[in-house]
Amino acid sequence: MRKVLVFGMVIGLISLFSFSCFAQEAEVSELSLAKSIEMCLENNLDLKLSAYTLELREAEYEEAKANNLLTTSIIVLKTSELSLKRARDTFEEKKKQLILEEIPNKYFEVLKALEKVKIEQISVEQASENLQMIKNKFSLGDANRLDLMQAETGFSSAQLNLTQAENDLATAKMNFNYTLGLPIDNPGKLTDSFSFEPLQITLEESIEKALQNRYEIIQTQDEVELAKLSLSLKQNEYTSEIEQSKAEIELKTKQIDLDKIKQQIIIEITTSFLQLNVGQENVKISGDREKEKEENYRISQIQYKAGIITTTELLDSQINLTQAKVNALEAVFAYNLAKNQFIKALGGEFEEDEGKSS
Q: Using CA atoms, how far apart are residues 48 and 91, in angstroms rounded to an integer?
């Protein structure tokens, strides 16, 4: 078994983590995913808020320790210690969310938008070629005015789709830059790419890993231990039966909460795992359909030139090809987003065997 840490390129970034007082002002020309994550950890506002909350809990814990010297209260001190631990867990969980999900997803969103623009550019070129071919046929009397109008409309629609794709790209870049703390108009070039790489892990391994690593379980286990301590301190002749009974009920409640969280995580992992498998199959099907539409369009061009099919059939085959390319792109993108979410649900790492099939 070899241990695989997701986004290994960012191992070590956490140790470099520090907050800057101001967002990045200089333009960044090139950005890898690792560099993007590093910049986000320096500038993300949500993470800064979480850090301030952690500092507050640390101060409160020190205050509780000082007060405990005057008025001894194990429960108050333990509660403050637990609050501090929860704040640390929340801080680490936020960093994990940024590293495993939020930044990769926004990075991939820009990459997807770039690819979408390329697809629509090809579509405009194809629509232009078809329009010119139909114009030539019309001048020779081999095509009617309706054919010409359909080709012109198809070309205009392709141009509109390209404009929309370019607008989506601009929006994706602005959102990405904002998250990193860069000027929203930063024209930086992304140097990494996303591809289809299936996870090699079984459902059983996934559930086991999640139950080991999920911070919700760890936090609730701490609450159970605190409830046990509270009960043990009240099991004496000086504490009323009512107080002892309340402590027993509190412990049982925390134990039930722990069981509920474990069951919910099992359901979450199972559902996510099954959806990931569906997404994996969708990538394959979408890729095959794209190849099919490419061949269909190639044949349609030949048939149209030979007068075998109508203008409508030719234009439809070109539109279907463009849509198939977009669907294939979306399928790979959706799979990567689902994979990022799944890995985060595992706790950020998983065990993988070489050559194992999921």
A: 9
